[in-house]
Amino acid sequence: MFVMALFISTISFSQSLKEADSIESIINNYGKPDENYVRLRNTFVAKKLFSTPTDSTWLSYNFETLDVAKKLDYNEGKVLAYGNIAVIYQYLLSDPYQAIDYNLKSMEIINNNNQLDVYAIPTLHNIGLLYYEQKEYNKALKYFIDALERIAPLNNRKDVKTNITSKYYSSVLVNLGNSYNELNKLDSAIYFYKNGIVESEKINSYLSVANAKSGLGLALAKSGKISEGKQHIEESLSMVDKHNLEFIRMPVYINATEVALANHEYTKAENFASKILVLNKSLNNLSIETSIRETLAKVYHRKKDYKNAFDALTKHIELKDSLTSNDRKLEISRKEIQFEADKKQLLAQEEIKRQKLIINTSLFGGGLVILALIIGSLLYKRKRETQFNLKVSDTELKALRAQMNPHFIFNALNSIGNYITNKDGATAKNYLNKFSGLMRETLENSNKETITLKEDLEMLKTYLDIERKRFSEGFDFKLNIDSEIDPENILVPPMMLQPFVENSIWHGISGMDYKGILKVVVKKEDNTLLYAIDDNGIGRKKSNKNNKGHKRQSLGIKITKDRIDILNKKKKTHGSIKIIDKEIGTRVELRLPIEKEFSDD
């Protein structure tokens, strides 16, 4: 399912191409550039951009407008140009991180000029859309609601162009509907869509009305009102054709596909999906094609066209693999950049402090030895603190890299491919659902310091389900939680157990000629949370002998030890790891401090 999150440009526009052509004629025959010239260029972009989204000259055109605005020192013109550049990066070039950069440049100007407060609304709105595209819908809602709450106070100011805020109002309402739709809060979605349509019709914004009707149609269909939803989709499609709304043609088709599928109109759904693939060739949006290939697999399966269903599902898996890999690389890249920035800042701060202390100490040349010792102690302490902070950043980065083992991903995808090749569609779908769920949860929890014990164990269970199926159910596992523990109220660092469980499977159980058993017990002991992992595998000695010459130190285990060291220092606790060689198999005991989300009082 895909709902278009639409950005209405920061100035008024209509879908009249004749009007846009008229403005273009004025621009082409304009004399010496002035503020009005900049306004005309920004207006032209707002009116024409949505009708020709594949035009590759839009970016250079807007940078030219920005250069003129800078030479004139025309702040409003700069803000509008930055906003349009952000839209192009966000939607036409699929580069959200460049888009956020230009939105922040806009905000910098706005924050220094209260006459431009009105432009904070579309900028906040656009940041919300960036989160929306990254599927962080709750964060997106926060920015949309912030933008909505700023509109009323601005309308009460005599120095603000109230006709501009009315344009933002309808767009924010529609995107609130989109966000609630994605979160399956359908009553809220329908409420905001309907209000968005009313406000959009007041300003004759065909594009916003069509977008809202498309989302409303999908929300209604999802809530069981398929006939009513179909009516709104058809009205949206009609508006797209009548007013040449090319900017939203593909997302409207996507929603139409889902509504047709819900109404068992499989041929119609297939036609819409095929049109989407054709439209997407020029944009090459990997996320859209991945989603549509999965939808086509459903369509073909329900039409009992199993060959095409198999081909569509295979393509979907290949694309999903590529998309996941790209997202992962991007997240790791961002973490690396942040780590390097933190490192430079910490070292710079330490050097400044050191120089200050040296200068201040020299003023008391030949001071008391005890003073020198105190200063030396302070310097040493600060150096240790700096090293510790760098270790925290470095460990976070390594943990992010290690959380999703690339071999595990590759092997899981191969298994899915084998099920598909053997035409075991039900097993492939079940396996794929578990795998994609684990990937999503891992990515979502990568930057969280703690999650609930329940969430952590659910992720572990999903991982074990996947590995067990890969080993043809060659081992059984049990998860036991002490009755004294409330897993929904205990907070733990995410994925602490996963490296030890992985080692048990791959270096203990996998080398056996009998069925493996893996037990994970969680209980309270000596005022700490104790995880105990037991397996009946071949043990560490035999495993090391079988892999002689290979480095046996697990990166995941080393990182986990570092994480516990950091946790102990931060919270002054005594977390620990103990690995015990049993007569048959291995036991790992991991102790963590007990941290509760809510107190027992």
How many strand segments?
8
| Integer average pLDDT | 77
- What is the level-2 CATH architecture name of the domain at 388-596? 2-Layer Sandwich
Distance between the termini: 44 Å
Might you state the CATH topology name of the domain at 388-596? Answer: Heat Shock Protein 90
Give me the number of helical elements. Answer: 22
Strand portion, in percent?
5-15%
Q: Biggest β-sheet: count, sense, barrel?
A: 5 strands, mixed
The fourth-level CATH homologous superfamily of the domain at 388-596 is Histidine kinase-like ATPase, C-terminal domain
Q: Strand order of the main beta sheet, please?
A: 2-4-5-7-6
Which range best describes the helical content: under 10%, 10-25%, 25-40%, 40-55%, 55-70% or over 70%?
55-70%
Poorly predicted runs of 5 or more residues: 1-15, 397-404, 549-553
The oligomeric status of these chains comes to single chain
SS class: alpha+beta
At the first level of CATH, what is the class of the domain at 388-596?
A: Alpha Beta
Note the overall shape: globular
Order of helices and strands: HHHHHHHHHHHHHHHHHHEHEEHEEHHEEE
Rounded Rg = 29 Å
